[in-house]
Specification:
alpha/beta; TIM Barrel; 7-stranded mixed beta sheet; 16 helices; 15 strands; 35% helix; binds cobalamin; binds iron/sulfur cluster
């Protein structure tokens, strides 16, 4: 069948406000993975970048009429949900009989209302590759959707959810993301992670064994599943050799997680000489690095590490269950910079146990820890997290607020302690003042 996958246009002002100019179209890796799987499964895939057309409704309509898809796929995280719903409604109006399939975190959680409101015909839960192919095969032959694991759909007006599909265990067996369908010069990596251009994203592992209270990444499970160094470096070789990319950015919540895994990847990069051709950046935890591993990472081409420090206050750190100490965070930053790797610090302002004093400690920590760039975002209690449950139970969270402020622009919740919501906005002004861009031209 012919599947049309759409990256829905989410106006940058709705996710980044005053920082909109930093948001350029970024590689849609979820869609690229689903596209790769569908192609490998024998289906034709067309990708429509609604972002490039800045949501122009006439271009969407022209594309739908030209492509005449048998199925349309959309990908909804919470901040992009409204945009996906708008696009879904247009697809429904223009091509009423064509099934709309929606995946990703927001669809996974709110599948019931999405189906009942007619915003999708099928919601894909969890990891999408195997399910997308089975679903396409089933739709093509007019088979029984009830036989496809890991989906929800409406039958006679009732929501039916099929049994959960087990996660893919052999990560090397996944087809590559279909980057060949996406223009190499059509996207840019987030400014703080951009070292060399063109760059794209790479996924080295899925799942996370930690349980931070603010984290909504449960969609890929608790058990971490890892690709082999060989498979990863094969992909980097392809991205560089055939598609011309000069940088890859890991999308994993944590990469590497162990020294063994990190060393194996670094050795393979050096063995194939790719360390001299491609730079890479990654996000990991401060308690997963040590000086020897960091030296090896630099040698293998790693130029920036993003650490989720989150806060500069020990009490808040404990309350969000990060399970490391501020001292360890300082050490990791020092070791990384000593190895020659720039440090990007992620911080959240306004977590449930924050107070004005604790927020000040976070800003102090960011200023004094010797990191290269600090990114402050206003904490958002995403659906599906412990913090969402906590704040909803508290009466401190209105759904209307979540709808308005879900993208780290403004607080959507009341803090149990004495901080005012306005306190949560100030630190973003510090961001560029105290932390110039890591490299000239990066921002
Ligand atoms: C890479 C990434 C991006 C990339 C690509 C996103 C994409 N959609 O492909 C870019 C840079 C574009 C991006 C942008 C944003 N992101 Co982002 N991103 C990530 C990141 C780091 C990795 C995601 C990843 O590894 N994907 C790999 C693929 C394989 O997994 P997946 O995305 O879950 O997709 C699978 C399934 O969900 C499913 N699936 C997904 N979509 C579909 C569609 C169909 C049709 C089917 C069948 C299946 C399916 O199948 C896929 C393959 O298995 C995550 C954090 C993390 N470490 O996971 C944040 C994260 C997903 N992003 C987040 C946010 C907030 C944003 C932005 C709003 C940031 C901003 N302020 O602009 C924007 C919104 C994007 C938009 N569309 O408007 C939040 C979402 C929070 C939430 N609960 O909703 C996360 C969780 C980070 C965080 N902790 O805050 N992001
Ligand atoms: S924030 Fe990172 S370390 Fe914590 S649970 Fe989420 S993915 Fe894991």
């Amino acid at each position: 069948m012919k599947a049309l996958l759409i990256d829905a246009y989410n106006p940058p002002s709705s996710t980044a406000g005053a920082y909109s100019s930093f948001l350029e179209p970024m590689p849609p890796i979820a869609i690229a993975y689903v596209a790769g799987a569908l192609e490998a499964g024998g289906h034709e895939v067309v990708f429509y970048d609604q972002v490039a057309d800045r949501g122009d409704p006439s271009r969407l309509e022209a594309t739908l009429r030209r492509v005449k898809p048998d199925m349309v796929g959309l990908s909804a995280v919470t901040p992009s949900a409204a945009a996906n719903f708008r696009t879904a409604a247009s697809v429904r109006r223009i091509l009423p009989g064509v099934p709309i399939v929606m995946g990703n975190i927001h669809a996974d959680i709110f599948y019931r209302s999405i189906l009942e409101r007619g915003l999708a015909d099928v919601v894909v839960h969890g990891e999408g590759e195997v399910t997308a192919v089975e679903l396409a095969n089933t739709l093509e032959r007019g088979g029984d959707l009830g036989q496809v694991q890991g989906i929800s759909f409406l039958r006679d007006g009732e929501v039916v959810r099929t049994p959960t599909r087990p996660f893919v265990q052999d990560m090397d067996s996944l087809p590559r993301p279909a980057w060949h369908l996406f223009p190499t010069d059509g996207y840019r990596i987030f400014a703080f992670a951009r070292v060399r251009e063109p760059g794209t994203l790479i996924n080295g592992s899925r799942g996370c064994p930690y349980a931070c209270t603010f984290c909504s990444l449960k969609i890929m499970g608790h058990k971490r599943r890892v690709r082999s160094a060989r498979s990863l470096v094969d992909e980097i070789e392809w991205l560089h050799g055939e598609l011309g990319y000069q940088q890859v950015s890991f999308t994993d919540p944590i990469f590497p997680i162990t020294r063994k895994e990190g060393m194996a990847f670094c050795e393979e990069m050096v063995r194939r000489g790719l360390h001299e051709k491609v730079v890479w950046v990654t996000e990991t935890r401060v308690d997963n690095v040590d000086p020897e591993l960091l030296d090896a990472m630099y040698e293998a081409g790693c130029r920036r590490i993003m650490y989720g420090f989150e806060t500069g206050d020990e009490h808040v750190l404990d309350s969000i269950k990060k399970n490391f100490s501020l001292e360890r965070a300082r050490e990791a930053a020092r070791w990384s910079r000593k190895a020659g790797i720039q440090v990007i610090g992620f911080f959240m302002i306004g977590m449930p146990h924050d107070t004005p004093e604790r927020i000040k400690s976070t800003i102090d920590f960011a200023c004094k820890t010797g990191i290269d760039f600090a990114k402050f975002t206003v904490f958002v209690p995403y659906p599906g997290t412990d913090d969402y449950a906590l704040l909803s139970g508290h009466g401190g969270l209105g759904r209307d607020r979540l709808r308005r402020g879900r993208s780290h622009l403004g607080a959507v919740h009341e803090l149990p302690d004495e901080a005012e919501r306005s306190d949560l906005h100030r630190p973003s002004a510090h961001e560029r003042a105290t932390h110039p861009a890591p490299e000239a031209g990066a921002l």
